[in-house]
Amino acid sequence: METFDLIIIGGGILGSATMFYAARAGLKTALLEQRNSLAAHTTAQAVSCFRKQWAEPDFFYLMKNSIEAYENFGALTGLGAYEIGIHQQGWLFASATAKGAARLQAWQRSQRALGVDDSEFLDGAAARKRFPFLSEQVTGATFRARDGWLSPYEAASGFARAAEMNGKGKLFLETRALQITLHGENVGGVETTRGALFAPRVAICAGPHSAQWGARCGVSLPITLLRRQRAFVATRAAPAAAPMVADDDTGAYWRPETGGAFLGWAQDEPAQPPLDNVPADPDFGAIALDACARLSPFWLDVAARLRKSDVSVAAGQYSITPDSKPLIGESAVRGLYFLTGDNGFGIEAAPQAARHLIQLVTGELTEQQNPFRLDRPMVQTQKLIL
Ligand SMILES: Cc1cc2nc3c(=O)[nH]c(=O)nc-3n(C[C@H](O)[C@H](O)[C@H](O)COP(=O)(O)OP(=O)(O)OC[C@H]3O[C@@H](n4cnc5c(N)ncnc54)[C@H](O)[C@@H]3O)c2cc1C
Prior knowledge:
Number of domains: 2
Structural class: alpha/beta
Oligomer: single chain
Bound molecules: flavin-adenine dinucleotide
Distance between the termini: 44 Å
Number of helices: 10
């Protein structure tokens, strides 16, 4: 029957980061996670890459600040030498068409204009010289050497540990939120499987389940859930020092991982309801190998020699918004906040998205200054291909 300043529902990367920034702002905060571990749902299925290669100001604001938070994780959280598995091996976007090369070159110029001072454009020959695994068909590429990937489980655990160490954060694992209670017109707390908790503010960070929470509280969120899959291929053939390699024409991508590589591809999928376990397609490994071989042909040789046991597939759900930007802010129900609409980049955006939410909660930012507010007009953008 404890009272808090803020209760967060959902202990993925976004809820964990939110608990950290809330505790740092002096808010007594509870984080509720129904599973027995943090970062065990969508966050656990990710390929966990991050990049500063963005050319749109709102995305750049989120990613630049988030990457800097991850790069300085120990100092930021006070955890010192705590490791979050950062690998800054770069991120390469490549194309095999003349149009694609021109598109990437223009995109890299726009990044520069925004302040990304270390991304490069490489023509086909330069790209192949630097990355000999690339196909003869590659016409152009952009690359940033300090992009990369990290361990979101370690990051989420570090955020939660830092919040608990500061004395303001309290983590409740294996605790399912059942219902949000109201106190007059305002949020009053949360009924959970361990009893009632009280707070004037609740933040929904429930990943694919967030829109359902909204609907139960009379808040309609413009979110579509789409399955996204990732294959792990055990092989020695994937260069361990390679960057994240994304085919900018199709969205197929791969990156090295201990013992092999992760491969992914955003195929067209029908919208889904929120799922606790997202079934993966057993054929996805073969599909992703084929798609990645277009620009990195060594995958064809790997595929020819693979045994079934060398490939495993996992799936999660992206929460897609019409303008591809996240939903961060207070809803029409006073005290009810949302941090969702990850559009497939929730890990790379998490620190700054969470910080932004807490700045709204504390009044440091107003909803008028908030480009991610829930009721903003949304222009349908071309969908992100990754
Ligand atoms: C194949 C794939 C590849 C990806 N690659 C990348 C990538 O390279 N880079 C990147 O940035 N992002 C990537 N993503 C996206 C990334 O995984 C998500 O953006 C991110 O994990 C979203 O985090 P979250 O905290 O919102 O959601 P989740 O991790 O789903 O966390 C929500 C949590 O809420 C809990 N919960 C729900 N309901 C309740 C309740 N009633 N009570 C208590 N707890 C509850 C759930 O158990 C869950 O742990 C990828 C995703 C997929 C599927």
